[in-house]
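Marked as duplicate of an earlier ticket. Keeping the data here for the record.
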Amino acid sequence: MWAYVKQSENPVVVEVAKLFFAVVLFFAALGFLIYGGRLFFMLRCFPIESKGRRRKLNEVGTKSCFLLSAI
């Protein structure tokens, strides 16, 4: 699709492609946000001294920071 948009001089095609990519990226970000939020709240129920809990919470936090910077 990107190759077709690069070759096309039609402004309507370019705008439709931009809208398509924006929608796809929005739903990808929404999926990460829902998954990360559910994982974060699930991990809060685990005991504090759990080794995997801290590692997973750091992972979710890192992805959340990436998601916010992408938005």
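See parent ticket for discussion. The first helix runs from residue 2 to 7.
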